[in-house]
Amino acid sequence: MTSKRSFLKTLLAAVLLAAVPAFAAPPEGFVDLHYHRPDGKYDKWGLHAWKRAPGASDQPLDGVSWFSPLKPDGQDDFGVYWRLAIKDFGSTATVNYIIHKGDTKDQKGKDQAFDTKEIKEAWVVSGDANIYKSKEEALAAAK
Questions:
Q1: What is the pLDDT of residues 126-136, one digit of tens each?
Q2: Is 2 exposed, middle or buried (0-12, 13-18, 19+ CB in 10 A)?
Q3: How far is Cα 15 from Cα 2, in angstroms, rounded to an integer?
Q4: Running DSSP on this structure, what letter comes out for residue 88?
Q5: In 3D, which of 128, 133, 111 has the Cα closest to residue 36?
Q6: pLDDT-above-70 percentage for the chain
Q7: Cβ(59)–Cβ(104) below 8 Å
Q8: For residues 110 and 102, is the Cβ–Cβ distance under 8 A?
Q9: CA atoms within 13 A on the CB side of 84
Q10: Contact indicator for 49, 61 with CB cutoff of 8 Å
Q11: DSSP 109
Q12: Residue 83 forms beta bridges with which residues?
């Protein structure tokens, strides 16, 4: 009886895991920025994000400053991620960002940007200035 019950529990767990996606895509009106560090150390890494309007100076998102970056919204098997509201980036809908820890900037120290009209999930790897459109591309680059 125990082995039959154990088998049924294992079967039920497998069915439930197969039915749940590994990662849910961002809801309408949001984009996700995924960040992978091969060393797995994400403590104190944050996101400085701003909007850039044509003819105007850059404006950090509300509540964001260099000394108070956005903390990740979650963590998964890729690394950490930030879920960002597209409306916060103004009419251009371009996400401008720097991933940093104090004054140490990742992605080769460059300001980064991606167009949310083209990319709903951006995947980046520590030490790599590229922005990937899929987890698979980013993981291949990380090797």
A1: 999 999 999 99
A2: exposed
A3: 20
A4: G
A5: 128
A6: 84
A7: no
A8: no
A9: 33
A10: yes
A11: G
A12: 32
Pull the structure tokens for residue 68. Answer: 């108070």
What length does the chain have? 143
Q: What is the structure's pLDDT at 13?
A: 39
% of the chain residues with pLDDT over 90: 78
| Exposure of 70 in the CB half-sphere (CA atoms within 13 A) | 22
For the CA atoms of 43, 28, 59, 69, what is the dihedral angle to 10 degrees?
Answer: -10
Using the predicted structure, report yes or no on whether residue 52 has a pLDDT greater than 50: yes
Give the type of residue at 65: S
**Taking the model in full, what pTM does it have?**
0.82
Query: Taking Cα atoms as reference points, which of 105, 110, 122 lies closest to residue 34?
Result: 122
Average pLDDT over residues 108-124: 96
Which residue type, as a one-letter code, is found at position 42?
Y
Q: What is the mean pLDDT of the chain?
A: 87
- Tokens found for residue 58: 């850059």
d(CA 29, CA 73): 16
